[in-house]
Fold this sequence. Notes:
This protein has a two-stranded antiparallel sheet. The chain is mainly alpha-helical. It contains 13 helices and 2 strands. The chain has 2 domains: 2-47; 73-298, MetI-like fold (Orthogonal Bundle).
Amino acid sequence: xxxxxxxxxxxxxxxxxxxFWGYLFLTxxxxxxxxxSAGAVLATLGLSFCRWTILTPPTWGGLVNYDTAIHDPVxxxxxxxxxxxxxxxxxxxLVFSLFFALLLNNKIKGVxxxxxxxxxxxxxxxxxxxxxxxxxxxxxxxxINYLLHTxxxxxxxxxxxxxxxxxxxxxxxxxxxxxxxxxxxxxxxxQGIATEYYESAEIDGANWYQKIKQITMxxxxxxxxFILITSIISSFQxxxxxxxxxxxxxxxxxxxxxxxxxxNAFHWFKMGYASTIGxxxxxxxxxxxxxxxxxxxxxxxxx
Length: 303
């Protein structure tokens, strides 16, 4: 009994030592988060209640910036466009990434090469990718309209200069660029499913579709939930694509919240109003994320 107590004391002491060193090594990161992240968030919240144009000292304005945002038609347009971008890009990203992940999860020749090819756009510069797609979307010399005319006899639209096609063009480019990341996450989830489930299903005579429906999809819901949350958060932060491809046009059809924040802060120097837009965007993302966390138990199944 005394020996067990001694061993228990040693384990407790080792555990405390590991905890101490763990927090010690995390200290620089925690300090960085507190100073550069938490501090910036609190400063933004404070500035959202101020009138500040950089050229003049900030003055307290109360809720005047929030009242301005509510009655600002461009802000409302940016908010609607951001929701449209989210609704258009997130489901497409989930569906296509899951489809390709299922294909790449099979034992096929050169599967590593295919996985690398799909992931290459993710590690490529978003600015370079956007410039490439601006050429692809060119109405006269772009590859997309050339293929549409050559293969199908269709005259492609002026993608980036048409109010009806500009946002779909940005969505298509964004889905293509982010597809590889979601594919890798889905592949990790697929490979984490025990093969015993599929072997038992085969013994019971289940076909490919039944195994996907009854085994893969339910056990993949934690991975799907993670990709859903990260994709929605990322979609509300869309900026580089609209900046490079359209500059928010034509006629504000691709104006998003972050791009409108950028214009107010660094073009018109309305730092107080830009901070308000950032706070509103943060609140929306927080509400959507909390809603998903609240109702995940109804459809997310853990092994």
